[in-house]
Amino acid sequence: MLAAAANTSFSLAPGPIIIVALLTGLYVYRWRQVRAAGSTRGATWTLLACWMTGIFALFVALISPIDNLADQVFAMHMVQHVLLLDIVPVFLILGLSKVLLRPIARTVLDAERALGPIAHPLFAICFYVGAMWVWHLPALYDAALKHSGIHVIEHTFFLSAGLLYWWHLLSPVRGRHFGGLAPVGYMLSTKLAVGLLGILLTFAPNALYDFYKTGPHVWGLKPTDDQALAGAIMAIEQSVVMGIALAYLFVRALSESERAQEREDRLLDQQEADAAAANAAR
Question: What global pTM score does this model have?
């Protein structure tokens, strides 16, 4: 089949545009509200930059030409998936703080308790890995590409799995806190399982998805080459994100340990001062 020209137009579906506009407007309103109240530490420019980076990644995934290219090139579809699964959730959650979430913090914690096992990190691992493996089964993957309704459900699964997964690691308001090597196990078990799927796609001897096999070869990519590129994108992205996340979590753990030690030192100093005052009063 001859190479075909790519459709690089923007996607103007109203749903994603409304979501991007709402998430931007609500966050900026709350961020300005917190700063106006004098709490600049709870609404820093860094937090705003993180949130807007997440919004931009969401725009790239669902509105930019990548959305149309995803229906033509497997590799672009994979870019869309990893944006929704990792990049968007990571930066949106990094844009939050306890102060920004104060109006809904109690509701969030109550929801975690009410959800029970669903709010457990083990469920997040299974959901994250399962979403990637199940939606990349040929029958389901082809169905998502052929039917817009199923495609929307697929994207909802990826974004939901990503938000839940990264919430346990990065959220400033959560009922469960990782300690010790728990974050390492959490990351390794998930990223290696999804990375394995990427490796399998990269080295599969035949093209697995009829949609791309029978469609036009955009940019002259053969289905097997396109599939190998998509698998490589998945495997490399999972490895890079895992490495960066583990480094971030390690630095955060050291910082939290230092703050805990400082609190203990202050408490000991206060106890010694109180004891000295008591002895002097005798």
Answer: 0.87
Locus of tokens 């004098």: 38
Confidence of residue 265 (pLDDT cuts 50, 70, 90): low
Whether 54 shows a pLDDT value over 90: the answer reads: yes
41 occurs within a structural domain: yes
Residue range 165-187, pLDDT digits in tens:
999 989 888 767 666 678 888 88
> For position 3, what pLDDT does the model report?
59
Contacts of residues 180-187 at CB distance under 8 Å and 24 or more positions apart, as own/partner, are 183/246, 183/249, 183/253, 184/246, 184/249, 186/121, 186/125, 187/242, 187/245, 187/246, 187/249
Q: Which domain holds residue 149?
A: 10-270
- pLDDT over 70 for what percent of the chain? 90
Beta-bridge partner residues of 217: 3
Asked if residue 276 belongs to a domain, the reply is: no
Are the CB atoms for 173 and 98 separated by under 8 Å? yes
The Cα–Cα gap between 71 and 40 comes to 44
In a domain, 73, yes or no: yes
Q: Which residues pair with 3 in a beta bridge?
A: 217
CA dihedral in degrees (180, 184, 185, 187; nearest 10)? 140
- Cα separation, 229 vs 237, in Å, equals 12
pLDDT tens per residue, range 68-114: 999 999 999 999 999 999 999 999 999 999 999 999 888 888 888 88
Q: Where does 85-222 have alpha helices with state H? A: 88-94, 102-115, 121-135, 138-146, 148-170, 182-203, 210-214
Rounded distance, CA 87 to CA 8, Å? 22
Residue 142, in any domain of the structure: yes
Q: What phi and psi values does residue 17 have, to the nearest 5 degrees?
A: -65, -45
How many domains does the chain divide into?
A: 1
